[in-house]
Amino acid sequence: MAVKAYDLTGRTAFVTGAASGIGRACAVLLAEAGATVHGADRDAQGLHETVTLIKDGGGTARTHHLDVTDRAQVRRAVESCGRLDVMAAVAGIMHSSPVLETRDEDLDRVLAVNFKGVLYACQEAARLMLARGTGGSIVTMASGAVDTGGPGLLCYGAAKAAVVQLTKTLATEVGRHGIRVNAVAPGWIRTPMTDRHDEEAQAHTEARMARMSPLGRVGEAEDIAHAVLHLASDASAFTTGQILRPNGGVAMPW
User: Fold this and answer.
1) pLDDT over threshold 70, residue 219
2) Range of the domain at 205
3) Half-sphere exposure (CA, 13 Å, Cβ side) for 237?
4) Whole-prediction pTM value?
5) What is the CATH classification number for the domain harbouring 184?
6) 3-class state of residue 180 by DSSP
7) Out of 14, 115, 120, 156, which one is annotated catalytic?
8) What's this protein's family per the entry (predicted)?
9) Is the CB of residue 126 less than 8 Å from the CB of residue 172?
10) Distance CA 119, CA 98 (A)
11) Residue 50 domain-assigned (yes or no)
12) Which pLDDT tens digit goes with each residue over 177-207?
């Protein structure tokens, strides 16, 4: 009975940022749970690889080559689903610069993807869910960066903090319609976004992050995908407006 609560057979899920990293892991796992997955990303080749993984595993998937910062593109893609049970707004970018060196264009670019892109996905998902009257689950992607300051993380942390506020606010507005809205705030996860492009530097960073965790390791994309599946499924039917923190036992101190 407990396993059945995670069964998404017959449901439709939309995942942004599905071409790689956490987004890909989420798309694959939601498909394994039985959902028909609509994957969206700017990276057409990465999307194709994700869909291939899903189909090779016996799942069903469609691709939407789009830019999450374009509201019209997001609207068309979400509306094309016909029905929507799960929205996983995962797409995001990383930027690092000291506060005194942060340029307008840096902040605008990060906010456009990491906040506005999530906002558009949430808005269009909620509209479709409300129109159908069948409820649903919206999962946003925050970050451990919302819990503590970190050098160079002004743009990224501010955008993710805005996602947390969006999540909590939307949860209060649509809960009475059976729509749940929650966020996942990962700790350090091994993904293309955290790749230092230098083997020695990568090993040093991961070792430092692993020492901060009581579990003694950094996270994998699949660790976050399982958190998303939990929030997407009936196993979290009484959970909304919450921030789930799979971070290995730390809040990403620096």
Assistant:
1) yes
2) 3-244
3) 7
4) 0.95
5) 3.40.50.720
6) strand
7) 156
8) Belongs to the short-chain dehydrogenases/reductases (SDR) family.
9) no
10) 26
11) yes
12) 999 999 999 998 998 888 877 888 888 888 9
CA angle 194, 200, 203 (to 5 degrees): 55
Amino acid occupying residue 63: T
Q: Are 83 and 131 in contact (CB under 8 A)?
A: no
Residue with tokens 């002004």: 154
CB 205 within 8 A of CB 196: yes
Per-residue pLDDT tens over the stretch 129-144? 999 999 999 999 999 9
Look at the chain and report how many structural domains it folds into: 1
| Nearest CA-CA partner of 245 in 149, 232, 231, 202 | 231
As a whole number of angstroms, the distance between CA 63 and CA 206 comes to 32
Answer yes or no: 156 catalytic.
yes
Would you say residue 111 lies in a domain?
yes
- Cα(184)–Cα(163) distance, rounded to whole angstroms? 10
Q: Is residue 151 part of a domain?
A: yes
In the numeric block, the tokens 């694959």 are attached to 28
Q: Are 14 and 40 in contact (CB under 8 A)?
A: yes
**Which tokens in the block code for residue 249?**
């036992």
Task: Name residue 212's amino acid.
Answer: M
Q: Is residue 251 part of a domain?
A: no
